[in-house]
Design goal:
Order of helices and strands: EEHHEHHHHHHHHHH
Number of helices: 12
Low-confidence stretches: none
Mean pLDDT: 83
Number of strands: 3
Structural class: mainly alpha
Strand content: under 5%
Radius of gyration: 23 Å
């Protein structure tokens, strides 16, 4: 667990002195990748013969201005010594970047506009975060409202993501709504685009689960396996185990538990690879996302057995994620096995692509 990966020092360009035991680097180190990317951009457009244009002049000017701003930060006399880089947020960012690139690459093979995919990715990313948070708050409403002492506390607790509080299926539901609206707005086939996007979405989920591990949420049950992990005092697993009487107050850390976040991350990467391979052998549009739904539903249902952060839903022993998994499994089986659906869903044979 590492909620804060590092801190960016605002009082020095190139200092590496730690702050409160957390690795800290001067803001000036941000100039190095910024400079390298700028050089790569110049070389690319120089070779392509597109360096001299109004748009590129504006882009170059922006690059220079931002670089100057970064270099001058220590001279601003700010009262804030540093800013944190949260592990969860960083993993979400990396998931967005890598997942978006996977989806854009696949879109080009389908003769689709890669820029359009990035626009859609922005819709899905922000709507997914909002949906995942709202789903979690509704799911744990008793715990959530117990922390609220007025309207100010309501919004503070609502956005307090470091304490844990994003439920993946909520993000999928909200993202699905935003996805349908986007496709209708741009007159895209929802099923075809789903096939294109699903490997990239799974890559994004894989990085997000690493973020869960760094944040300490979505933890597993107690075990004594060689790879079992413990979480420190004050973490979500520690607090939950303390409330359930599994550990005593003052314990050095939580019980050793399954790193279900890492299991989930590996699972998402594997399914993304399977779907990418299956792409060459699909018989109709919709079969790729159908396969992803089947595999993810089965594995997520199984992983929920190892997790102990959620209790049964609706008076049953199944968690809400397991109930959603059952629905996802049914939907996936329909998409994979039905080769003839109405033209409204564009479920028609497709030409094989590499």
């Amino acid at each position: 667990m590492r909620q804060v990966l590092l801190r960016i020092r605002l009082d020095s360009l190139f200092s590496t002195e730690a702050i409160d035991g957390v690795t800290a680097i001067g803001v000036g180190y941000g100039l190095i990748p910024w400079l390298l990317v700028g050089i790569a951009w110049l070389v690319h457009h120089k070779r392509a013969g597109t360096l001299v244009s109004q748009d590129n002049a504006c882009a170059a000017g922006f690059w220079v201005v931002v670089g100057c701003i970064l270099g001058s930060v220590p001279n601003w006399g700010l009262q804030v010594q540093s800013v944190p880089v949260f592990g969860y947020g960083m993993m979400l960012f990396l998931g967005f970047v890598f997942g978006g690139n996977v989806a854009a690459h696949r879109a080009k093979k389908e003769n689709l506009d890669g820029k359009l995919v990035w626009d859609m990715a922005m819709w899905l990313f922000f709507s997914g975060i909002v949906g995942a948070r709202l789903f979690h708050v509704i799911q744990h409403r008793d715990e959530f409202f117990a922390q609220v002492n007025g309207i100010g506390d309501f919004f503070t607790v609502l956005i307090n993501l470091p304490r844990g509080g994003l439920t993946l299926f909520g993000g999928i539901i909200a993202g699905a709504i935003a996805y349908i609206v986007f496709c209708r707005k741009h007159r895209l086939s929802t099923i075809q685009m789903a096939d294109v996007l699903v490997p990239g979405l799974l890559v994004g989920i894989a990085f997000g689960r690493i973020g869960c591990f760094l944040n300490g949420c979505c933890f597993g049950g107690a075990c004594e396996l060689p790879w079992a992990v413990t979480f420190p005092e004050g973490s979500v697993p520690y607090t939950v185990q303390l409330q359930r009487g599994l550990i005593e107050a003052g314990a050095a850390g939580s019980l050793r538990v399954h790193p279900t976040q890492i299991y989930s991350s590996i699972n998402a990467f594997v399914i993304a690879g399977i779907c990418t391979y299956y792409w060459k052998h699909r018989s109709h549009t919709g079969s790729v996302v159908g396969l992803a739904l089947i595999l993810y539903a089965i594995t997520r249902f199984t992983l929920e057995i190892l997790r102990t952060d959620e209790l049964g839903f609706g008076g049953t022993s199944l968690t809400i994620s397991q109930w959603v998994s059952i629905g996802a499994l049914i939907a996936g089986m329909i998409l994979v096995n039905l080769k003839r659906l109405t033209n409204r869903f564009d479920l028609v044979p497709v030409e094989k692509t590499t």
